[in-house]
Amino acid sequence: MPAETQLAVRMDGIRKAFNGVTVLEDVHFDVRPGEVHALAGGNGAGKSTLVKILQGVYQRDAGVVEVFGTPLKATTIQAARAAGVGMVFQEFSLISTLTVAQNIFLDTEPRRGGLIDDRAMRSRAADLLARIGVAIDPATEVGSLSTAQWQLTEIAKALGQDAKVLIMDEPTASLAKHEVDALFDLVGRLKSQGIAIIYISHRMDEVYRIADRITILRNGRNLLTSALSDVTPQQIVAGIAGKEVAAAQGPSTKPVTGPVLLDVRDLHADGVHGATFQVHAGEVIGVAGLMGAGRSELARALFGINRITRGSIDKDGRPLRIGSPGDAIGAGIALVPEDRRLQGLVLDHSVRENLTLPLLRGLRRRGLVATDKVRAASDRLIDEFSIAVARPDAPANLLSGGNQQKVVLAKWLGTNPDVLVMDEPTAGVDVGTKSEIVRIVRELSQTGKGILVISSEFPELIAMCDRFLVMRNGRIVDSIDAEHIASEEDLELAVQGLVA
Fold it and tell me: Is domain 246-496 in CATH 3.40.390.10, yes or no?
């Protein structure tokens, strides 16, 4: 292949399986120098696995990986880095107590006489930042930078390791609009310098603004590779969504006639910038939005984790003051958090202890926790939610992901809340557990509870919800009745702000 047409990356016939489950099958992907190639697909499509193979985190089971025509026979992080592959992480990898220069050249510091040459390091960092047009003092401690400056420093760190191929995974998720503009200006400059960029994003407006081509993966296989000029946003969304939702059982079509249970007006908190909505008794509301839209932040504000700075919350027509999770629990609000292992469970404690932790105040006798009451309460919840556990006193970390999620759900439902907020309740659980969660939510709504379900799993949202709130930039921008959302594609179009 002539040098002028040589590909920056060629991945051909890539196959990868984990524990006998095939994640990628015969996948083809390439990037040209000076090109932004978007990589898209739904949850579980194989995007992350593919770029981790290129990055050297995973070994491929079959296929060829070439970087600028040179095969990567042993795919390791060191080999990929030496070949010029860099990664800009969605979750920042910088050390906040070090300077910009120290982060850029971490583990590759220039030395003189065996000691780190700070002056040379700052000079090289300044030259690099100037080359890519980033106005940041290399002596600045990273902890004092803005979010956008963190992101730009991440890019500089990758380029400081001589990256000629840059993988960017949802790089705008935490950025404001003007910060996104600055990032895209930098991407344009990198393109002009011949840097090849793999851009992973769910945001169609950004993809069309910055990318030259797009590849869509679905169920671990190639679905489409096309120039952006030859494909419409609706076609891309249809490819990502597929047509499998038609088989999903939809929510009940009952009209929502219950009284207003929760009335939220102009709510401001970290990541939430004026959310207004109502939840009726017996209603299941799905909260949909792209990464960074403010969905989890809204849940944390309602539960008193994130401080509310402005706005009001009324329950049953009475104002609430929610300054802590204790206030929320006392008001009849419960939260099933996004990360069950870090936020929902005490993994080293027993299943019984986890189930009864929020209930201990009501399980006392003469001021002491009554063992028989704890046992009776935990046994009832294990039976009611069909939690598969050999011994209730076994540690929660021994349970499967699905059963761990059922423990989290059961412990909060044991408090008999009026309003249940569920953040990604079906993430990382098997199909059977997903069906059980959908059933539980429907049954709860029939008892008059108000339920907010935040989820990136559109099939489950469609199966559960009577109405959908669309979030964008920390605000509720649309409210759509379930009868107007016939498929996953309809919901994806609503989230993207596109007309179906």
Answer: no
